[in-house]
């Protein structure tokens, strides 16, 4: 059964849903959403086990796509455009491939429909091992940084730390995330023969290795109309590294995809 996701909204116009990545929350995309809200009704949901959304023991891409589909149906959105980053990008792809009639177009940021190996499990372990309730934010950040590699996104991980009354806690189901990490790093094999014929854009951070030109044949097999764009001087967190360049790319694609007058 799908979960009822927490979400925030901005603007008015054609509907647009932005799906955040692993360890994130919808609010990480607030600046992008507020910029797009000049022309669109933007929805920022928190994924299951993230932010203010309900927790669950499992979090497969099929389940997360159904969560988003339930939001679309509950809000009576007519074929919204769906933008997803990283884990959210895989969720967006899963939704488009499994329920193509529900989606007007899909934009995927710095991820491909393939399997990855990475250090995410070490992030979960480090966060679970911290007694954040008894520590201050500065102490938590220092200890977390000491337990991870020098290139770990410590400041990004710290954004999930929230004060609840007189204690801190992670707004993230770390146990479920850790147990589901293999599925989160993979892509559903059941969708390998599926196709989404609608508008599709794949945006890569030029300094990231998550979305490479070698991924394009696999992308086009699933998304025949896919266009690939690279944003210079951006890593995996494109929206934080180059927000203006990302917005330019998204606005151009959205205008073409839904035939909005750019003026």
TrEMBL record:
Q: Which domain of life is it from?
A: Bacteria
Q: Which residues form the AB hydrolase-1 domain?
A: 14-242
The protein's matches in Pfam families, at most eight in alphabetical order, are given as:
Abhydrolase_1
Please verify whether the record's keywords include rRNA processing. Answer: no
Which keywords describe this protein according to UniProt? Hydrolase
SUPFAM superfamilies noted in UniProt: alpha/beta-Hydrolases
Q: What is the protein name given in its UniProt record?
A: Pimeloyl-ACP methyl ester carboxylesterase
